[in-house]
Amino acid sequence: MYNPNASGANSTVAGNRLFVYEVEGLGQNQDAMSSPIRKSGRMTVTVPYNRMNAEMKRITRLGGKIVSIRPLNGGDGSSQAASANELQTDRASKPMTQAKPKAAKSSIPVNLYRPKNPFIGKCLSNEELVREGGTGRVRHLKFDLSGGDLRYLEGQSIGIIPPGEDDKGKPHKLRLYSIASTRHGDDNDDQTISLCVRELEYKNPDTGETVYGVCSRYLCELNAGDDVAITGPVGKEMLLPEDEHANIIMMATGTGIAPFRAFLWRMFKEQHEDYKFKGFAWLFFGIPYTANVLYKEELEELQAQFPDNFRLTYAISREQQNAEGGKMYLQHRIQENADEVWKLVQQPNTHAYICGLKGMEGGIDEGMSAAASKQDINWADYQKLLKKEHRWHVETY
To answer: Is residue 397 annotated as part of the catalytic site, yes or no?
Structure first.
C-alpha cells in the first residue's frame, strides 16, 4: 500500500469513584474475589479509582481476564459515581487501562538505507492479485534482500525510488509502500520483502488524458530479475504488540491490506519460535467487488483453520447493501459490529489498526461513538486515551 500532569488520586474526587470490572477466568477460591461467578463464567468486581491499576495486576496474576471496564453510575457521597464528563476529565490525567510498553527504540530498524545510498534489490516475482471481474491492477511483488542488511518489522514501510527524472529534470523522489510480508519474508528465510501495489490511474481533468502513477506503474511492470532501489525501513505507528495474547482489530480498504497480511502471516502461518499468537484477530476488509478481495484464498484459509482466533468480515461496496439500502462500505460493517468492537477495545490488551482510505475514519468514529454512548462515555475522549496508550493505530491517505 502506498502511504502518502496528574495530581494524586487520593486527594481528589476521582479517588473516591468506583468502576466495575467484568472479569472471566477466575475460579471461586480463597484468592479470588468474593463476588459470585455467573453462569457465563464471568463476574463483576467494583474497584475504587485509586486501586484500578493494582487490581488489574491482581486479576492478571490470578489468571483472570478483564472483559470490560465501566464507571459505576449512581451512589452516595462515600461511593461517588463518575459522570461521563468527569470520567473523561480524569482519563486525561490517568488511563483506565494499561497497555504494554512499545518496543525499545533500539530494536526497531529505521532508515538503514537512505535515498543517497539505497539498497539495490532484485525483483523475484510480480503477480496479479485482482481476478477476472475486478477493477484496477494490483500486484504482489517480492524482492531479494540477500547481500544487504535491510531488516524490517511488520507494519513498517519501505521507500521505492523509480528510475528516471521528473518534468523538471530532477531524479524522481521516493514513494513509501507498506510492507506486505513478515520480517522473515514470504519464503521464511529472512531474505525477501514483499509489497502490495495498486497502479494509480486517473484522467487529467484538463485534457481527458489517462495518467498513470510514476512509481506504481514502474513497480507493476517490473520483471523478475529487474533491479529496484529501496530505502528504509520507516514507521513505528503500525507495529504489532509483543503480547501473544493480544486482541488485534484490523480495518483495511484496498491495498491497506498490506500490513495486515504481514500481521496475519506472523500470527497464524509462521508460529515462529519467538512469537506464537494465542489471541484474537478480527479483520474488516473493504473492497468494490469479490474479485478485488486481495489475498482472498490466504485469508479464507486462515479463517477456516483458526475459527476461534480469526474472524474475517468483508464490506463489498458494489455487491452488498448497507442497512439503508446504499453501498456497503467498511464503516458500515464497523457500525453493524460496533458493540462487539467497543467491548474489545475496552480490554487493556486490545489494539486497533486502520489502514487505507482516510474517508473511512469518520464512519468508524460514528459507529464507535454510538456504542460508547450506551455507557455514557464520549468516544472522542476515549479514542484519545487509546492513542495515548498506543492502542489505536492509524495510517490513512
So the answer is: yes
pLDDT digits (tens, 9 = 90+) for 296-326: 999 999 999 999 999 999 999 999 999 999 9
Write out the three cell numbers for 314.
468483508
Give the CATH number, domain containing residue 148. Answer: 2.40.30.10
**Does any domain span residue 385?**
yes
Q: Please, which pLDDT band fits residue 28 given cuts at 50, 70 and 90? A: very low
DSSP string over 19-38: EEEEEES--SSTTS-SSPPP
At 361, which helix (H) or strand (E)?
Answer: helix 360-373
Better-predicted residue by pLDDT, 43 or 133: 133
pTM for this one?
A: 0.74
From 177, 314, 353, 382, active-site residue: 177
CA distance 98 to 389: 7
- Asked whether the beta carbons of 188 and 270 are under 8 A apart, the reply is yes
* Cβ neighbours around 173 below 10 Å, total: 12
Q: Residue 99: inside a domain, yes or no?
A: no
Catalytic choice (178, 181, 194, 317): 178
Query: Is 395 a known active-site residue?
Result: yes
